[in-house]
Amino acid sequence: MLSFLLHLSNILATVLVGLIVTFVILVVVLRITLEPVKGVCKCKKELQGKTVLITGGNSGIGLETAKDLARRGARVIIASRNVEKSKDAVKYIRETTGNNKVEYRYLNLGNNYSVVKFAEDFKKEFDRLDILVNNAGCGVIKRKTTEDGIDLLMQVNYVGPFLLTHLLLDKLIASKPSRIVNVSSLAHRLTKLNFEDLRKCESISNLIRYSKTKLCDVLWTRALAKKLPHGVTANVLHPGFVKTNIFEFLHPYLKKVLFLVIDLLFKTPVEGAQTIIHLCVSPNLDNATGGYYMDCKRIEPSKIAQNDDLAEELWNKTLELIKQ
């Protein structure tokens, strides 16, 4: 009996080791296949005299982008609705980069009035805007309608950034050469677009709601690029699957499991910020516009996201929505 149990324990130990080895190999293969850290911005361009506005620049990939551009000498304005976290971010960036031209301004993308007020104040206070990074966004959140009658997820991830950019275009044009960088997601490939989704996003899963907002970001960038004068570019990107506070909505135990997987498979905020930084500074992209990027390279988005007629219709529908 004892020998049998010893034999059984040896078998179980062998199986366990085999499973662990298989899991490690699978993790490595998935890491290489899905999210290789191959897109690193190697450009050393300085940004002295340039003004950069980054929404959601107080954490995650936004914070890492703000820190990198500040290190290059830019005047960096972080726009966010979280006052305390933004103040901490400003202090941290100043201390780590030695650049004291890092500031914070309040902005709530979930409220059109806040966006309009921010844009009005920005244009009065700052004489130029060289780079606008629409980074702020939220993950899969429960359905809620904003004061403007728009689904909160759609408002924060798409309508708010659209409105902000629309209101700051004159400043960007006056400052050209200038750049607009929009953060989207590979998740845009998971869905199609119904224009009713701009307001309600009903009868669909939370993940698909999120995907629709990111599809809108890709389409909007495509339409915007065609309307900008020479010297102003607009590009959109997938930063990678990154461990950031976008997952704060999850149950603590589920979040721990997810973060364990992300730690093994996906990118850190520093890695996730690389494509944003690349689109902000690379001299090779001076005249590149309307593109979708991942790992610092231009790739093709979903077929739906390449539909120019759909992009133009979305543009017009959104203008109606924000009453511009």
TrEMBL record:
SUPFAM superfamilies: NAD(P)-binding Rossmann-fold domains (SSF51735). Belongs to the short-chain dehydrogenases/reductases (SDR) family. It holds the Pfam family adh_short. This is Retinol dehydrogenase 13. Keywords: Membrane, Oxidoreductase, Transmembrane, Transmembrane helix. The lineage of its organism: Eukaryota, Metazoa, Ecdysozoa, Arthropoda, Hexapoda. PANTHER family: PHOSPHATIDYLINOSITOL-GLYCAN BIOSYNTHESIS CLASS F PROTEIN (PTHR43157:SF31), PHOSPHATIDYLINOSITOL-GLYCAN BIOSYNTHESIS CLASS F PROTEIN-RELATED (PTHR43157). One of its GO terms (molecular function) is oxidoreductase activity. The chain crosses the membrane at residues 12-34. The keyword Ion transport does not apply.
